[in-house]
Structure formats: C-alpha cells, structure tokens
Design goal:
Rossmann fold; globular; alpha/beta; binds S-adenosylmethionine
Length: about 240
C-alpha cells in the first residue's frame, strides 16, 4: 500500500494544513467531549494516523490525557516525533491501524481525518482491531470529512467535488496556495479511490453499526446547512 507522503508532501502538509477550514473547531469540540466524558480523570488515548501531530498537540493540552500517537508513513512519523518531542503526555509508535497489536487497552481511540484513509475492504478488520484496543466503556472518536450521500459513482464524484472545491475556495481566500495545491491532489486521489476513501454520513453510520459500534454523539462542525463537510462522531462498541 502506498504511503501518504507519496502524494501529500510532508513539509507542505505540516506548514499549511494547520489552518484547514473547520479543523481547529473540530479539535476544540473533541477536547470538550473528552472533558465532559472523563473530567480530570487520568486517561489513555490511542491516536490513529496522527500525521505530523497537529491534532495530537491540540489534544495533549489536556494534561490528564496520555496519548500514544501512531502513524504508518515513515516521513510523517519522523516529523511527528520531531514536532512533539519533549511533550510529557505524548508517546509514539510507528504502525498501520489495521495491524496494531498491543496487550494494553485505551480509554479512547482518536482518529482525525484518518478513518477515510482505511481502504473500504479493510474497515471490518480495522474496526475489529479498534474494539480490541478499547477498554470496556471506551470510546472511538472520529473526526472526518464527509460527502453527500450517493447512489452511484457519478453522485459520489459530485459529492467529492463539492467538498474539496469548498476547501479550495476557502484556501484561495486565505491565500493558502499550498493547501489549494494539496486539495487538488486529494480530490484526484479520492475520485480514483487511491489512498482516500471518503464517504457519506449514511454509509459511515451503516459501517459503524454493521461492525458493532453505536453512535453516542454526532456533531456537524461545518459548513452550516449542508449534509457534507467536517463531522465528529463519538462512538462506542456494543
Ligand atoms: C489526512 S492525514 C491526517 C493526519 C492527522 N491526523 C491530522 O489530522 O493532521 C491522514 C493520515 O492517515 C495516515 N494513514 C494512512 N493509512 C493509514 C492506516 N492504514 N492506518 C493508520 N493511519 C493511516 C496517513 O499516513 C496520514 O498521516
């Protein structure tokens, strides 16, 4: 399987992805949810596909949360460890989410824009692994980019175009040319289903339910009034 850095340059990603529309708000919502669920209790979190660590850093501001940040791509992993070295509540592990094997279990598993990188054919194995990695009562929290529901491939492609063109327009307004460049690549990859497997709320919810996860909370972060964009799901195995 190809690494993310083959089409998403790690330095560009690290420098220009931080201000991606709705992502800081989504991280704040996840932080509030963790606070509501666990208060100041010391808890452990496993982060899937941590990238270069933008969200890891945000979540690590919760000092009661000890994060094991995992990432399979060697270049992203190197940047992640360099960026967050010295953070007492962040540890690192190189690995692909479907095949992470550990004896220990976690209070939460976090996925920021990583769930849609797991190929559809691996989702069953992936969710079964997440279940094994969670303590009883543990939560799987997904922040992801979602497209409108679709009945065929041409509707799927239209949904992808709506989502990515919105981010491209926002990045153009902000003068973030690097993100415009990256988003155009992500759109092509998503259309071809090469490394990017974005789907609709309806299909994601079906996938979660079929694999034994129930949804405790669903929050649409934006853009307002749409059935697509950035969403956060707080889920748990049943
Ligand atoms: C869009 S980036 C998100 C990175 C980071 N979570 C963030 O929000 O900035 C997707 C990440 O998922 C990782 N990834 C791809 N396939 C994966 C897999 N099978 N298991 C875990 N992570 C994966 C990529 O290497 C990449 O770092």
């Amino acid at each position: 399987m190809a690494d993310y850095s083959e089409y998403s340059d790690v330095e560009l990603y690290h420098k220009f992805h931080k201000s991606h529309v709705f992502k800081p708000e989504a991280a704040e919502y996840v932080k509030r949810s963790i606070r509501k669920l666990f208060g100041k209790k010391k808890i452990t979190a496993l982060e899937i596909g941590a990238g270069t660590g933008h969200h890891t850093k945000r979540i690590s501001e919760l000092k009661n949360v000890c994060i094991l940040a995992t990432e399979p791509d060697p270049k992203y992993f190197a940047k992640l460890t360099e960026y967050l070295k010295g953070r007492k509540n962040v540890k690192f592990l190189k690995g692909r989410a479907e095949s992470l094997v550990m004896k220990r279990k976690f209070d939460i598993v976090l996925s920021f824009d990583s769930h849609h990188h797991i190929p559809f054919k691996n989702r069953k194995k992936y969710l079964s692994n997440i279940r094994k990695l969670l303590k009883t009562g543990g939560k799987y929290i997904i922040e992801d980019e979602i497209i409108s529901d679709y009945k065929n491939n041409s509707q799927r492609i239209n949904g992808l175009k709506k989502l990515h063109n919105f981010v491209i327009a926002d990045s153009e307004r902000k003068g973030n040319k690097a993100l415009v460049y990256l988003e155009r690549i992500y759109l092509k990859k998503a259309i071809a289903q090469q490394g990017e497997y974005k789907t609709s709320c309806k299909k994601l919810e079906k996938e979660l339910s079929e694999n034994g996860f129930k949804i405790d909370k669903k929050k649409h972060i934006g853009p307002a009034g749409k059935d697509w964009g950035v969403f956060v799901y707080v889920t748990e195995p049943i």
